[in-house]
């Protein structure tokens, strides 16, 4: 199937000439060490069609929207004015849309579950969210609840999520504001968490988080965001953990392709090899890889960290496995570090896939881990490669 698809990319007509490029911005990138810090005023306003500011949260006492980092987000007390600078980017590009993303993994699920299950709490959340968006000039709201029914949620979340989205849409559409959601790409979470037809009928776009299929939480190496299954995945019960399966599952479940936006990671998942003689897929591991110098998170490296590290050291071994679409690399002199990631070539394959499936476009998490300074070549090589392949650029 994969070989036929890759041949099809070369032969396919370039019918789609439009689409969306969604880019998430991690506000905490402002705190990265020198060389990796990234502020709202560093954003190229012509790079993406829609920008997403991550994150706001929920006040667990009032269930109103909560500003999580006033210093980064606001101008008060010498703050960085993140919200205002972010939405002001539209002055340079009037076609740009900016959205405030609420939620994220760190926010958890329990507070969202409680809020969604109570009419009064929903009203407080909707009213405060719409007010905050209007105050700072955002063009819409992106809800990233990870995940309904999961992580302390309840079975009723599946139905309550649709109710919440309908009430949010009613509060937003009066001023023509957008409503998008970020959703899981895992089959079992999808089954438990989402009424796909119900939510698809309400929202403007569904942002499918087709990454983190594998990582250092597993005892073996694998691809972070495999476009298709590895030939040995079925033997390990992993045949559902790939981009193609997730996209088709959402479409078959009732999500119109024109509303589905396919996620592409701008980072790699890292591991520490147990046996340096085993360096391919399914090599045994027991620890995450050492932290990157900017992201400072074990088990993860931003693309900007990785590509520059590969320039600095000729000890990296970069492998393009013929059975997969994404590269992996390892450097034994750095604690047996192994990383699966996307490069400009692999994201072009993914963008072509999204285009050929008739999807709305692509989204990245996150723009601040792209090579924004051009240390490895042209600036924003990952995002530019995606947009070029999807034919967003005229």
TrEMBL record:
GO molecular function, one term: chitin binding
UniProt xrefs under PROSITE patterns: GH18_1, GH18_2
Keyword Signal: yes
InterPro entries: Chitinase_II/V-like_cat, Chitinase_insertion_sf, GH, Glyco_hydro18_cat, Glyco_hydro_18_chit_AS, Glycosyl_Hydrlase_18
Gene3D superfamilies, per database record: 3.10.50.10, Glycosidases
Keyword match Cytoplasm: no
GO BP term (any one): carbohydrate metabolic process
Protein name: GH18 domain-containing protein
Organism: Meganyctiphanes norvegica
Taxonomic lineage: Eukaryota, Metazoa, Ecdysozoa, Arthropoda, Crustacea
